[in-house]
What does this fold into?
Amino acid sequence: CKQVEAVAGSQGTVLISGESGSGKEVIARAIHESSTRAGKPFLAVNCAALSESLLESELFGHERGAFTGADKTRKGRFELADGGTLLLDEVSEIAPQVQAKLLRVLQERSFERVGSSVSIGIDVRVLATSNRDLPEAVAEGQFRQDLFFRLNVLPIHAPSLRERLDDVPVLVEHFVRLLCERERAGQIEIEPGAMEMLASYTWPGNVRELQNVCERAVVLMAARARTGEPGASVLTRSMVEPWLLPTARVAATPLSVVRQASATPNGNGQAHMIEPKPIQAVLPNGEVRRLEEIEREAIIETLHRFQGHRQKTASALGIGVRTLGLKLRKWKDEKLVEPTL
It folds into this structure.
């Protein structure tokens, strides 16, 4: 994007904020690869995964005998990334003592290894990511304000995937193509219904969750293709649906029941369209009905229209058979529908 291109030509520190899985590390790599440091090292440290003492040693290195178990001198990531780029992933999780040492490195471009008093000069561009609200952390005294200002020279916000659902089809095709190459699978087509479901899901796990779903689909379909199972070249909605959290789906309105699926064969073997009964969202007295009531009415009406055939009902409503069964079971337990449904 233009913002990545703009900061790539600079040597300033970049702070990339955004939800977990929104592609912050991908942005960081893109900045490095578009910069004059592209041929130099790109190293990353997950600040949330290491304790205070381990993180300090990981970043700055240590001298032999600096602490128990330090049987030899070890270079830290700052030293190893000299001339290149160092990514501090989840920088908000750094302990106060290490924050102070990091601040000095950013200010003076030098540091000392743990257990040493000799300063080592470095030329490293620092990129940092955070899924927390750093200004709020500063206000609560959990993060140094001076360090925040040093990191926030060139801020970039990575939007969540639900903020850019139009990108989903492009990302799906990209991931599927790459994964097919990796798994040495043949070309996989994506059923329109499957793409529609993926593009209407809110993706709480962001790009990482989307990539995982694509990988799971490609791996399973490649395995099916090797055993000669039919349908191994088309990614269907019924395959994808069980992997998506029901609470994160953008519900298709029950008012728009799929008309072509509501056709039933007449005596001549041709489809006979049954006009669905309008479902009222607002009652004559002005009272607005709850979404669950409208959904329940739409499902019951569609079940009756298909004479209780769950597969046809689920297909018409654009939901999975398992989802339909779970809803009916819940409503039966609550005595909201007929036990014979």
About this structure: The chain has a mean pLDDT of 83. DSSP finds 14 helices and eleven strands in the chain. The first strand starts at residue 14 and ends at 17. Residues 88 and 296 are 49 Å apart (CA to CA).
